[in-house]
């Protein structure tokens, strides 16, 4: 979590770095607030979006109990392979994510 916070702060500093008057705390806090709101929207959307996308793909894994690291990588690979094979599902997923992140 610390890495994510550091990345957000650094990206805000990069965005505000060209400001000739120097950095303003209010602008930094506003940038961090927007990033945190977007991140929380995406975090709450992640699992339902995976379920919706799996339903769109008719993706049902064979066995998901006691997955080892290699089986998990294979499962993710199969999912990604099917996902990028169906443009309709990719576009629907991107549309739902954009609707959640973009301001109203």
From TrEMBL:
Record keywords, A-Z: Signal
A Pfam family recorded for this sequence: ACP53EA
InterPro entries associated with the record: ACP53EA
Signal peptide (residue range): 1-22
Designated name of the protein: Truncated accessory gland protein 1
Organism whose genome encodes this protein: Drosophila parisiena
């Amino acid at each position: 979590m610390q890495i994510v916070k550091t990345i957000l702060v650094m990206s805000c500093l990069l965005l505000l770095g060209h400001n000739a008057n120097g950095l303003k705390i209010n602008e930094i806090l506003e940038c961090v607030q927007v990033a945190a709101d977007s991140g929380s929207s995406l975090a709450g959307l992640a699992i339902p979006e995976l379920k919706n996308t799996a339903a769109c793909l008719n993706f049902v894994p064979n066995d998901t109990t006691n997955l080892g690291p290699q089986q998990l990588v294979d499962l993710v690979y199969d999912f990604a392979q099917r996902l990028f094979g169906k443009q309709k599902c990719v576009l629907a997923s991107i549309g739902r994510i954009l609707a959640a992140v973009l301001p109203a």
